[in-house]
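Review this:
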Amino acid sequence: MKFLHKCPLLLILSVTAIAAEITGAVNLDKAYAGYEGKTVMTPPLGAVFWGIKEGVYPWSGEEQSVMAQVQPETQNQAANEEQTKEPVPDPQPESESQSEPQSEPQPQSEPEETQPPEEEKTYEFCRVEEDYFDDALFIGDSRTQGLLEYGGIEERATFYCRTSLTVYDLFAKEKAFIREEGEDLTLTQALERHSFGKIYLMVGINEMGTGTPESFFEEYARAVYRIRQLQPQAIVFVEGIMRVAGEKNASDPIFNNTNINIRNVEIATLEDKKDIFYIDVNEAVCDENGNLHGDWTFDQIHLKAKYYQVWKEFLLDHGIVREG
């Protein structure tokens, strides 16, 4: 007893423990039902302290005791489920394009078929009347000079011609062989002053002894394209060189029909049947052997006056009429 008087705190703790033990024993099947065995301490005393820890007091009912026991287990299970559950992403705000009403898709139109470009129209020869020469120009040597004098179209057509004229005199040397109103003009100057619908070119006989067929054709082609440049609206007729009569053909090593034919083949290649046309008057003035009619010429080279009418008729049979 003296010991207890010296240690009052111990006395208080002992009395409290005995009271708790008695309380736990009395309420073990009531407020503290289900707490037995939760601690290694004396079951009644341990039940009391465990219950107080979880908010269950001796005056609490049996139902609260059971709920206090079950609640932690339920909370633990819910926490475990929350950890294992896959996170659901927050819904993204709809974009302006999504929030707007979607328009119905329009059916795609069939692509238009592109038509291939039409080829430029080509033209064939046809018969024309003499007024066809009203806007025509004839360029050439002494043979064209004869057409001017005896063809009967001098009042309609224009002639830029001269004896011994060659293809080199047209543009390469720029000779002033054209006389207009007292003024001498080059072909370039004359073509720049006037406009023609048709242009006929007959040169080549005087160039037979100069250069080669190749060099002749190169200069001839340059002359034709220069004429086209200066008169782009005109139809250009490149005329085959008129052949010589049989006697000269057989005796002359230079001025013969073999050499003429070689050059004519080259001239014919310039034809495109659109703006440039090849015409060969030999079809009208030569015999069955391909030589100039012997009795149609006075010098084996030039036509007699009355046969220039044959040349004119050939030209009328080979007109080109373009649409528009």
